[in-house]
Design brief:
Number of helices: 1
Helix content: 40-55%
Order of helices and strands: H
Radius of gyration: 23 Å
Distance between the termini: 77 Å
Shape: elongated
Number of strands: 0
Structural class: mainly alpha
Length: 51
């Protein structure tokens, strides 16, 4: 039995979710900086509580 163990970040089970997380993080930062996905007008919600 070998004493050498690979580092955690060398396993695909760790790398694939890390890559997906990185892509989502970059997309979130780009959308917040470029103001994508936000409505250009203010939205108000009115509730009628009368019977």
């Amino acid at each position: 039995m070998s004493r050498f163990r690979r580092s955690l970040w060398l396993y695909p089970l760790f790398q694939i979710p890390l890559i997906v997380f990185g892509v989502c993080l970059v997309a979130t930062i780009l959308c917040s900086v470029l103001a994508l996905g936000r409505p250009s007008v203010a939205v108000a919600i009115a509730l009628d509580m009368s019977k």
